[in-house]
User: Fold this.
Amino acid sequence: MSLSGIYILDLKGKPLISRSYRGDTETNIIDKFISLALESEEEGIGQPIVTHLKHTFAYIKYNNLYLVGVTRRNANVAIIFTFLHKLRECFVEYFHELEEESIKDNFVLIYELLDELMDFGYPQTTETKILKEFITQESHKLVIAPRPPPAVTNAVSWRKEGIKYRKNECFLDVVESLNLLVNASGTVLRSEILGSIKLKVHLTGMPELRLGLNDKVMFENTGRNTNKGVELEDVKFHQCVRLSRFDVDRTISFIPPDGEFELMSYRLTTPVKPIIWIETSVERPGRSKAELLLKAIGQFKKKSTANNVEILVPVPSDAISPKFSCPYGIATYRPDLSAIRWIIKSFPGGKEYPLYLRYNLPSIQAEDTEAKAPITVKFEIPYFTTSGIQVRYLKIMEKSGYQALPWVRYITQNGDYQIRSN
Assistant:
């Protein structure tokens, strides 16, 4: 990738900050961008890439700002977008809120960051933790350490040398979010698992970690039973992972950053049955009355427990005096949401809990013509994964040979989880 320059604009296209890296573009070339971008957005296309003559503009929008990269070369656009998102993350880490005001208040610091993040159009140090060691900010004033930390010139730019801990520990969380859409008959219309592996590393020195998963591809390559393997899709790694090693034998080997970071993310589109199913039945004792019986059923392992389950049951916006009772949990009427909010703090697998709901309507026909919102469910189940992914091992190797404690935890939670009712 080779960028000619970086520009930060307000929504009207006025440049707030600009940095030219190669000097191969005209100073007013950015004036062509905003008209092209607005024209694309007005047509409903909203392309993140626009071109003018020999110039290519790749941009992202954040809050009330445009972050634009300009190039005259046949550059890898995916890398440009990756850099722009890294730039956004860096600014948010420094200023907490990235908006027009914070840009104006910190322009000196931003110019310094732009010079360290990129050199002659090529990305350099993009890890905020490392940048904060020698570029600091106090009351909008820039203070620069006399020498950059070794990590800037080191091959391992995301970790500094000389880190020491009295107690060496490594915490690993496997977090999966379940996106699910189910119709009233129980047919799954859409299911998707979005997973991430997050680490919190407190390790001395420059340790190398090796992570083994029940990866189906690896099982196939080694002739093992693939029934227990999980086929991961859209896998994305932190830059610390040795991709060449992963391509050869599917081993996830890396020298980790210090502290918290996301090691990898993945996606699965395999069919998944509802973890928490909501069964509804409706009776109409009169033209303007409705009675509902809802059953929340835990369709996961009995040894697991869902915590802080929140079920949002929609009611018509013109419902009169909704009345409800539930033998387990707490239910409240939320007129601002036109829904009953039912909270169950602890929901063991295999259990079934009812909710009885009655309400009146000005006219039953009004309810029939009104579009029915789906029931939404929120939950968190520790020590459980929907995909069946497992950490087979987490090895920590360091030349001093110290002992370290790895901790592994699994969490499944809701994503966009909706159930359509009758």
Q: What stands out?
A: The chain has three domains: 5-153, 169-272+386-419, 276-382. The two ends are 54 Å apart (CA to CA). The domain at 5-153 is CATH 3.30.450.60 (Beta-Lactamase).
